[in-house]
Structure formats: C-alpha cells, structure tokens
C-alpha cells in the first residue's frame, strides 16, 4: 500500500464557499448531502486514463475541478500507468472507497489488475494494486479484469467488490469477492455473480438497492443490438433474473452505466457512456424500469468517460473546491463578445488569470467582454474597460457557489485564422475577384465524420468572411455522404472564362466539383475522380488531394495518398487524369500524408505531413525536385514546422502554401490542436483542430527556414 498525497492547486478561495444560501438555526449537526461529485476519466490516451473530479449543486450542471486535469497520478497507483472506470462509494464507516480498472489501453485491452483506494476526505487517498492473476490460482490466465465497483454487504458486514473477468475460451462474466478490513486486498476467491443466460459477454455492472431488492445494471453483448439491461434479485450475491428490455434510451453503442438517487427525491438517475459518439446520456426514473432522457437539462464543461456520481455534503464540496480550484463557467460565461475567440479562452486557476484572445481590429482601450451571469450570480465591473495596458480585475460572485477574483487580460491574436474548428486548409488566390479563398475540412465532428465543406475569403489573410457551404456530400454528391476531408482547389482559365475546380476526399476516394466562382457553390461531376490505388500499393488510403499548375509548362497535376504519394497529370478539362503519367513518388520514411506542391525560383517544393494528426508531434517536412513528377532531393534539415510546447502549440501539420501575387512573400497555412484544451484531449485532439497562418522564409540557397508557429499570427496585408 502506498500513501498518495495529491498535489493541490494553489487556488485557495478568499471567502468561505457556501453551496446553499438558506440555513436554518435548527439545522442538524450532521449536514445532509446537498451536492454531487462526478468521478470519471476522459479517453483512451495515457494522459486521459486517470481519475478526474467534477461537482454540481443540482446534478444538472456539472463543473470540472482542477481544470479537468487528473487529481491522482495514475503512474503512482497502477501497474500499467493508466486507470479507467472509477467507481466511488461512501462507506458505512464514514470513509470513502474507490475502485478503478488498472489498464492503459495503448498497451492493449487485456489486463489482470484493479486498484483499491480509500480516503477520509476525498482529497488524500491510500491505494493498493490487486493483480487477480497473481493472487488467485484459478485465475492465472485471466485476460481481462474490468470495471470494479464496491457495495457494502450488510449481512456479511464487509465491502463487496464486483467486476467482470474474461477467462480463456469464455465470455466476460460478472464476479464478486470481499475486500479485507483495510480495503487493501481481496480476501475471498472471486465467485460468479451474474452471467448472460445466452452466454454472451456482460460487463460494467452497477448495483443499487431499492425497496429491499437489488438492481444490477450491466452492458450485454448477446446480439448486434448491444445495450444496457437490468437484472433483479432479493439477495445481493445471487438470484439475479435478467429483464428482457434494454433500459438505455438510444440506438448508439453504450457502456459504463451508473445509477444513483437524487438528494431529497424519489428520482433515480441512470447515466451511461455513448463511447462511439463521445457523449454521455442522462435519464431519469422513479421505478428503475422506465427511463426518460433528460439530456436537454444537463450540462458539463468537460467530456467524461465511464464514471460514477456520489452525493456529498456542502462541507465536502468546499474542501474539494479549495483543494483543486474551479471556474464554473456555466454560472458566469467567459465573455460573450463576438470579438472573443471563445474556443481559445484560457483560465489559469492556479494564478487566477483569465486570457481573452480577441480578433483583429478590437479596440482594447474600450472593450466590453460582455460577461453574463445566471440568476443568483454577479460580475463586476460591467461595461467597457481599458485592456490596452494591463489586466482588469473582475469579481465573479457565483451566488450559491461562492466568490473569487481574476485578473482578466485581452490580447489580439490572429491565430487561429478561422473561427471554429477546421483543419487541412487549402488556400487559393483568385484572379477573378482578387481575394484569397480558404477551403478547410470542417472539424469538430466525432472521429472525422464531417460531411460538408465551407469556403472563406479575405483580402488581407487576417479578416476572413464565411462564404457558407460550397459542397454538402449528403445533398450534392451521389457516390458518398461522409468523411469529407482535406480539399484542394485550382483556378483555370478555359475559353477565356475563369473556372474553379474543387478536389476533395469522401469515403477514402477523391472527388472533384466545378464552379464559375471561387466561393462556389460547386457541382460534383457525379463519380469519383480516383477510386483505386495504383498497382502494387496495398497500404494506406486514397485521401488528401493536392492540385498544382506548373508555371513553366502550364500543365496541372494532382497528388494524393496516405502512406504513399502519387502524382498524375490532369487533362485539360481538369476533371480527368492522364493515366499513363501516374507516378508513385518516393519521399523518405517520414511521409504520412498531406502533400503540398509549389514552385519557386526554378525549384519544385514538395511538402508533406509526418506522424499522425492525433499526435502532438504531427509536423511538416519537405523535399525539392526539378520536375513536377521527378526525383526528390531531401535537405539534411527538412523540417518546415513543428510543435512549440513553450507556447502550448501542438500537432502542427497538413498545410498549404500561398505566395502573395507579384512578390516573393510566402505564407504557410496549417492546422494545430485547439488551444488551450487540445493537448489534454488525447485522440479527440485529432478532430478538434484550428487553422493558422504564419510567414515562411527561404535562405539564399532556396532552403525553407523552419517556421516558428505563433499565437499572434500575421499582420494584415497592406492593400
């Protein structure tokens, strides 16, 4: 057993926080539960597989503590370096008990251990690792030990730990064992508690007692129609009879059910993890049979995975807030001014500093962030303030939730360039309307599931106009309706008229659409332009098109590929290729995807992205050539742009390049993880990205000088 002392945020509230304003003189010495603690993890990355906290006064509005960072170091308590599925219980002895799955999924989904934790105050915990395969002879070959939970067995007068296990050749079954007096080990051999009557797997059990009966909720995997069912028994350790109906209220894949009773109410909440959609669903019931979705009433400023909720007292809530710090930005908004780049607001709980990044042209001497408050909350000062020289002190009074003061700064930041989540930016200068046009992937969709493309235009590369949707796969494309990724665009004068060609990825094929205007709308040609890999290529995907018109020959070329790079000459119609010119190009081993080609002073530059867009190390490298389809010369130092942790910038990749007409002035347009939350999002950072622009320079020999990504971005071009 190891004593864990959790590092505390240096965020001590200057006033005593009171969760409820009314207090009777006859109040009992023992305070009733009046708030809720949500214990959860956030994803499958190592940094996400850790215990986190959030609290609520009403169970409908949860706010993350500790800025949604871990409250216990997984490396210190686990055998694998990661923990998942936290379950928390208030014991009959006044102590708190927590169990977690000992599993870091980057090493695979098999595991043999769980972790038992015990605390007297919810802040300081002792922990013990329990490796089932080493403790019990009958389980030496166990494949999985998942989602342990604890309940007090009043008859045995012991704490019972129940969990699912997978033995070789079998299915996942729910077992139980009793913990020892100190909650440091399992003192009885695991026994079968529940199994599927159809021999399917069942996991993620959660037991609650109501009216003398025990209700066991679990995820069943008997059929393709997987979901959550409930089994009922008069006894805690046996006799469970499975009901036929699914109690989850969705057709989406779910797991990790958690059931708890509301304070001072007959209502129960059943919540569960819609893990494939990155969402949580809350339902309500008074009989544990019929459940109604209440998602519209629930808000969270974080994205949980498989967790549990515990009723807590006001004093316990005070202790947690003082230990970890918070800013309940649902009670008071972080500023509603249209000038604020909302996704990039930074709240530094430790130093009580709030940074509001604002758009170009904002008058910092006379700026109103437009903080708004819910009923019972207040903010001061109100109205416009002078942010041009220093931070402005703001008092945030959350009413029933307490009070604190922040130094609020407002700074003009031109990165990200576009408002919202976008990625894989393509940029084009139109000779027809003398404007720059940006075509990105529409991001923020779970697992890259976006289905439309938008266009943006600008005269100065800083102030961008949203020109709307230029191509909607569901409406405008007959052969694909999802995975709209990584577009490219070209302007071509045909028969004296400007035409615009939009190349894009859809369902791992390359399409092309045509318009008379750079902002669209575009008309798809009705079939994929590229639907098969070149002969001999068996890996990778047909994605990430790039189009390049050679200023020397006037010929246009299409490039594409993930895991391989292909170049092929386009026919004059720009919507078909010359098959006999198809060439598998050979960059070095760093090539992953995102080819970008441009020409400067006799050299053809080929840029590409290295690593994975979900990785903080996603970056851009380059080679040069003397031909659009020729051999590559790879400079010794060929890095174009990479992360800068000192600025919190990560995942810089998949770029395009633009030359200012008539000059040797060049800019790189790329995406990065969203700031400030991206680096903490794990896999999700790969589809919550932002488009940025920075200046790009060359040395006298024509080598690209590595670009330093910036938060400030570029200054507007002079007209």
From TrEMBL:
CDD domains: GH43_Bt3655-like (cd08983), GH43_BT3675-like (cd18828). Keywords: Carbohydrate metabolism, Glycosidase, Hydrolase, Polysaccharide degradation, Signal, Xylan degradation. The keyword RNA-binding does not apply. Residues 1-25 form the signal peptide. Pfam families: Glyco_hydro_43. InterPro entries: Glyco_hydro_43, Glyco_hydro_beta-prop_sf, Glycosyl_Hydrlase_43_Enz. Belongs to the glycosyl hydrolase 43 family. This is Family 43 glycosylhydrolase. It comes from Flavobacterium flavipallidum.
